[in-house]
Amino acid sequence: MTDSLKVGLIQQCCGDDINSNLNACIASIKLAADQGAKLVLLQELHNSKYFCQTENTDNFSIAETIPGPTTDRLTKLARSLGIVIVASLFEKRAEGLYHNTAVVLDSDGSIAGKYQKMHIPDDPGYYEKFYFTPGDIGFKPIQTSLGSLGVLICWDQWFPEAARLMCLAGAEILLYPTAIGWDKLDSDEEKTRQQQAWQTIQRSHAIANNVPVLCCNRTGHESPESDLNNGIDFWGNSFICGQQGEILSEAPYNKECILVTDIVLDRTKELRVIWPFLRDRRIDYYADLTERYLDND
Fold first, then answer.
1. pTM passes above 0.90
2. 30 catalytic per annotation
3. Per the residue annotation, which of 14, 25, 44, 91 is the catalytic one?
4. Where are the domains of the chain?
5. Quick check: is 189 catalytic?
6. Suppose 218 and one of 62, 103, 223, 234 were both cysteines; which one would form an S-S bond, judging by CB atoms 3.0 to 4.6 Å apart?
7. pLDDT tens, 158-190?
8. CA-CA distance, 261 to 269, in Å (whole number)?
9. Which residues, other chains included, contact 191 with Cβ-Cβ below 8 Å and sequence gap of 6+?
10. Is 154 among the catalytic positions?
11. At a CB cut-off of 8 Å and minimum separation 6, what does 263 contact?
12. Could you confirm whether domain 4-290 is CATH 3.60.110.10?
């Protein structure tokens, strides 16, 4: 991997028309590349509205195969621009088998690999277990022309185990395509606590593993297909942080944004000497981490 890398995030609003959403992504990717970005991360499920607010079998019709229509367009774009693109798709693996999948398109126009979301939420407004089977690829970094990318997805970002396993396997950057926001009924104080917790946990992954973190969230209000809930105000705030959790660049919460900045990759090597977290891990006492819960009876 190169010593310094210019990266870009595309934070956008999504409408009802899938083709329009993808066209907007492509236009923004081109603008990010014009600003020098060599690695561009898109938000979670960027081709559509966040349909998981309700359980509706009609939504399975928007799933697609990998390779498929979207990857066909994005591989051509990656090759023409000479960049790496990390996209996020509703993957149809087989009839009745679907994943929430990130796919990495390399700068030569090839599909470098994919990651299927492992932690699947099931909460009011986030009914993802209805749609997505947990991935079975595991926490494996994806090798690209720019180096090894540890791609995880949204709810995965709350679990330090996932970040650690990616980095133990050689990930040089952690990337999180995301779709998270507020319930309109939450108080302003609660909204602030939620947003700060979300950023803090991801910054902690950067610190604990000495790697940069890229998080790309969506923005705008999206109403559900029914009146069962109040919709979601996606809180944007996409950000890029360095190996000590320092914020290098951050988007606003309430508007579309193309975020481009440099990350210095050599800092990982320097910090792992100064802060040798990997050296001092007590792996001989971590076996209990594979237990669901430790009953003290």
1. yes
2. no
3. 44
4. 4-290
5. no
6. 234
7. 999 999 999 999 999 999 999 999 998 899 999
8. 20
9. 182, 235
10. yes
11. 4, 5, 7, 173, 212, 240, 242, 248
12. yes
